[in-house]
Each structure stands twice: as structure tokens, then as C-alpha cells.
Amino acid sequence: MTDRIEEESGTGVDYIAMQESERFRGLRRMQRSFVFPMAAFFLLWYFAYVLLAAFAPEFMSQRVWGDITVGLLLGLGQFVTTFAITMAYVSFANRKLDPVATEIREELEKAEVRA
After folding, report:
1. Which residues of the chain are under the pLDDT cut of 50?
2. What is d(CA 15, CA 12) in angstroms, rounded to the nearest whole number?
């Protein structure tokens, strides 16, 4: 693989070859396999909240405890969900994405030194 990274002329690093490599494509595929479903989930959750607020005000205004309503709890749930998704992505990236990205970067740096 390292030989493909160096340009045919031997004067530099062929970043396009790395971008087209199976390892880099696998890294992008792995990242997208997390990001796209999570983004879809969050958008559905967000639009459900907005639609409930717009079309089900009676439901959203139901008191749960004191002045705490269903709408307030769901709204706060939006923040909780955002932080949970962020923490899940950081964990996923640390475990799955970063080791592969580090290998790719180190390989490119070695090729750059040789060039």
C-alpha cells in the first residue's frame, strides 16, 4: 500500500490514491454508519417534539409534577439527547475511527518523509 501512496514520479505523496484506498473508504463508511442513523434519529425526535408542540398543546401542557409539564420534560429531553449522542459519537470515534485514522496518517507521514 505504501508504494501506491508515493506518486509515480517519486516527488510527493499521492493523497488521491490514499483517498481511493479500501482502508480509507472503510473508515468513511464506518463513520457514516454511525452519523447518518444517529442524525436521522435525532431529526425524527426533534420534529416529533415540534409537531407535538404545534398540534397537541393539550398533551404538552399536561402537568406532571407541580409546574413541570410534559412539554418541558420533552424539551429538556432534547438537550439530554444531544449530549448523549455527542458522548456516544466520541466513544465510537475513540474506539473505532481514531485507530484507523492514526494508521492512515502515520503512513502518509512516512511517505511524505521519503518524498
Report:
1. 3, 5-9
2. 9
**Are the C-beta atoms of residues 15 and 108 closer than 8 Å to each other?**
yes
> Using CA atoms, how far apart are residues 70 and 74, in angstroms rounded to an integer?
6
Question: What is the pLDDT at residue 18?
Answer: 87
Domain that holds residue 25: 2-114
Specify whether the CB–CB gap between 4 and 107 falls below 8 A.
Answer: no
What is the pTM for the complete model shown? 0.78
C-alpha cell at 67: 409546574
Write the CB contacts of 49 (distance below 8 Å, at least 6 apart in sequence). Answer: 74, 75, 77, 78
* One-letter amino acid for residue 11 of the chain: T
How many structural domains compose the chain? 1
